[in-house]
Design brief:
Layout lengths: L7 H42 L12
Length: about 60
């Protein structure tokens, strides 16, 4: 331990780093989801602009 340094500093810094890592993971996950939704929307829009009739997804049961 360095002189003038409180023992709680390490715990506080580790908690802040963990919080920042979690926040970054959430932002990356939301970005991935948003890009997927935008790509799907773009494909559907391209299909509709080509005047096709079966642009929706087909569900098989």
């Amino acid at each position: 331990m360095m002189p003038g340094r409180m023992p709680d500093d390490d715990r506080t810094r580790m908690a802040a780093n963990l919080g920042a890592a979690i926040a970054i993971m959430i932002v990356l996950g939301l970005g991935y989801w948003l890009m997927g939704a935008l790509m799907h929307q773009s494909k559907t829009e391209d299909c509709l602009l080509a005047h096709r009739r079966s642009c929706g997804t087909v569900e098989v049961r």
